[in-house]
């Protein structure tokens, strides 16, 4: 397995809409393993393919707590079919926006249709942290970042900070 470099704000790739995965094959299996390894190393609880520079509709999630057995979830071509009217607020962070956290309000429960790692269709009813994480990662596939759900002023400050940091690395 290979740990992939993470794409960091303000990289314009993060705003790209990801294309559907065409087929589940050995190459994709290897890439899924690489994504999981990258997510665990970061460490994070979710990772979209675009965050490692691959604009494909694929994401991985693992909500197992430290010391628990890993419980990786794979979502290929995920699509939100239903969202609850009830809302919930979680403090979100992002591997592509390191060390920045903000409270984000999203639907409390969702139903997601996707393909699993085996290429078979799966339906996932999610609430709580899983619902939040799925929505966060699916947003990535659509070129949306969690900072797009906070006030314009806060968002502009975050983008400015990361743009300045990126310039200093050059």
TrEMBL record:
Gene3D superfamilies: Peptide deformylase (3.90.45.10)
Residue numbers annotated as active site: 137
Function: Removes the formyl group from the N-terminal Met of newly synthesized proteins. Requires at least a dipeptide for an efficient rate of reaction. N-terminal L-methionine is a prerequisite for activity but the enzyme has broad specificity at other positions.
Any Gene Ontology biological process: translation
Reactions that this protein is recorded to catalyse: N-terminal N-formyl-L-methionyl-[peptide] + H2O = N-terminal L-methionyl-[peptide] + formate
Full protein name: Peptide deformylase
EC code: 3.5.1.88
Organism of this sequence: Rhizobium rosettiformans
Family: Belongs to the polypeptide deformylase family.
Cofactor(s) this protein cannot do without: Fe(2+)
SUPFAM superfamilies, per the entry: Peptide deformylase (SSF56420)
């Amino acid at each position: 397995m290979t740990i992939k470099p993470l794409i960091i704000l303000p990289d314009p790739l993060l705003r790209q809409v990801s294309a559907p995965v065409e087929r589940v094959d050995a190459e994709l299996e290897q890439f899924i393993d690489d994504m999981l390894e990258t997510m665990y190393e970061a460490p994070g609880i979710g990772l979209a393919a675009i965050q490692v520079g691959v604009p494909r509709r694929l994401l991985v999630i693992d909500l197992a707590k430290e010391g628990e057995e890993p419980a990786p979830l794979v979502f290929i071509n995920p699509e939100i079919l239903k969202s609850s009217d009830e809302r919930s607020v979680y403090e979100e962070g992002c591997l592509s926006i390191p060390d920045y956290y903000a409270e984000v309000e999203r639907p409390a429960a969702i139903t997601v249709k996707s393909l699993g790692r085996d290429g078979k269709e799966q339906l996932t009813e999610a609430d709580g942290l899983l619902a939040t994480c799925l929505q966060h990662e699916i947003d990535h596939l659509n070129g949306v970042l969690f900072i797009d759900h906070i006030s314009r002023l806060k968002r502009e400050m975050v983008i400015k900070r990361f743009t300045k940091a990126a310039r200093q690395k050059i």
